Amino acid sequence: MEKTKYQQLAIDLKKDIQSGYYSENEKIPSLREIQSIKSCSLTTAKEAYRILEEEGYIYVQNKSGYYVQNQIKSIILGPQNEFYESVEADDRIQQIMNTVMDPKLLSFGAAIPSEEYLPIQELNLTFKKAYLHKEIFTYGDLQGNPNLREWLAKRISMFGYRVNSKQIQITSGCTEAITYSLYAVTEPGDTVIVPSPIYVGLFQILETLKLKVVEIPYRSGEGINISEFEKLIKRHKPKVFLFAANFNNPNGILFNDQTKQSLANLSYEFGIHLVEDDIYGDLYYEGTRPKPLVSFFQHSNNGPKTFLCSSFSKTLSPGLRMGWVATKTGIQSVSKISRAFKISENHPTQILVLEYLKRQTYERHLKHLRSEYKSLSKEYIKLLIEESEGNLKITKPDGGFVLWIESALDGDKLLLEAKKLGMAIAPGSLFGLSKHWNHFFRLNVSVGRTPKIREKLILFAKRFLKNRNLKKTF
Questions:
Q1: pLDDT tens, position by position, 457-468
Q2: 24-53, pLDDT tens digit by residue?
Q3: Within this chain, do residues 289 and 204 fall inside the same structural domain, yes or no?
Q4: How far apart, in whole angstroms, are the C-alpha atoms of residue 226 and residue 228?
Q5: What sections of the sequence does the record tag as coiled-coil (predicted)?
Q6: Residue 338 class from Cβ within 10 Å (0-12 exposed, 13-18 middle, 19+ buried)?
Q7: Residue 306 three-state SS
Q8: Same domain, 268 and 202
Q9: Are residues 322 and 193 in the same domain?
């Protein structure tokens, strides 16, 4: 899509600021001056400066002019609120994912927990019990097993989002839960705001539903800048926020409660629905389980709808395909959509999960996972930084089991280098629509800590020693 004159001017000025041509707190040319320098109209100059101000690059000082924002380097962390009329991601994603998911490679790329961290033995025992239930051979309840929904309702309510079993729809994993939720409140051509980087599979959903996208950056120390966010809402009039507020995949970031409350207030004020991906919420490293973003929202029949989406894929087994949507005001829409695609969910699997949960080992299992993943993250970070001699910059996650890593090497090319070593990583280009993440990659720490794994990581890290000046880019 061809850029307008003011959009191109804004891009050119941003590049000047990013390159250091204009430094922090330095006064930049006035509107009249830039009009003369760039041979553009005054309207074009005003619109370009408006974009720069909205995106946090410049600020206005009364009766003085425009200045570069203080601490500009900490502000330029991601895509600068970029708008996309359409999403075309599926072909590119599938091409890369074929390599990332190659079973012949040691998979550091896919965010899949290894069998070592899954309760395989306990699940095998409950398989036998599940098949003693006669009802497994029927379709079952259209919303999902009532007892399983009751268990989920009680647990979800413990974290601040009080729902009952009738407000839950069982789904085939979290991705399906998110798809149904978006389907329930959008039409083709509606706009969705998503943070960047974000889980790669969401782009395929957005493309399929023909939705427009505004990609917003994480800001240093706050997650989402609320005043900036409000300006984007007024400008783009989004229908939905699509967030992973607890340990976003791939960067492991956790929104603090203040940010969550501010986002909730904005949503209610402007009537914007929320679809929340909370699949990593149970895998926190410190303190207590963080509240989901939906728990901060006001709920009324006439207000915006909220949808909490999750699954057991990251904690029990991805192969179970057992997820859910919890929603106080949107369950009829979600259940109707679910019935349009299938009569019911996998009944034997629901019974299997329920039998496991009855054993009351889930919390103990989660406690073990949190301890292991926190330890593994620390070990991987230490090893990678030491073996690369500081040529990697790693975002320390607050939870989950993936690392978000920046280097001066292109992530797509790095995937090919890793493949030569018999391993796979997930290049950063998968996690955003812009090219901002091309020098990033994601690494799965749940692969474990065997001597073979350590050897692979050391060989991989040493690849970054070929250029001794990499660390100077950070």
A1: 999 998 776 554
A2: 888 999 999 999 888 999 999 999 999 888
A3: yes
A4: 5
A5: 359-386
A6: buried
A7: strand
A8: yes
A9: yes
